[in-house]
Amino acid sequence: MGIWATLDRHKVRIITKFCGRVFDLCNHDFEELIVFFCCRQHDYENFLCTLLLPSQSQISAFVTRAFNTEVAKVQDQVTEPQLGQMKMKFWEETSDKIYVTDPPSQPVAVELQNKTCN
């Protein structure tokens, strides 16, 4: 993965390439890149399988896998049951807000809204 900057219409653009995909981080691809990293880091087997899907289906599958990963990580991240309940409540409310209002500015939630509502 490399990161490089280009001058485009008098603005500096930050562009990165990851798994053969080019992401323009100044053009709202940041959340998409976070979704890819989340899947790659926490669900590598499904990450590799998702790369075999047609390119137009990949990002939706990655977003679904990233959401699943975020919810599954709650058990590993907390030591107190109350904290786990709070995190699960966050994801429950976030999944409801995706269809009604703007979700919290969590990259997986933003991409989930982008892919399900657009």
Provide an overview of this structure.
There is one protein chain. With 118 residues, this protein is α+β, with helices and mostly antiparallel strands. 63% of the residues lie in helices and 16% in strands. The protein has helices spanning 30-42, 44-50, 55-77, 81-100, 107-117; strands spanning 2-8, 11-18, 21-24. Helix 1 packs across helix 3 (55-77) and helix 3 (55-77) packs antiparallel against helix 5 (107-117). The longest helix is centred in the middle third of the chain and has 23 residues, at 55-77. The two termini are 29 Å apart.
Please name the defining characteristics of this protein.
16% strand, three-stranded antiparallel β-sheet, 118 residues
Quick overview of this protein structure:
The chain is α+β, with helices and mostly antiparallel strands and 118 residues long. The protein has one domain.
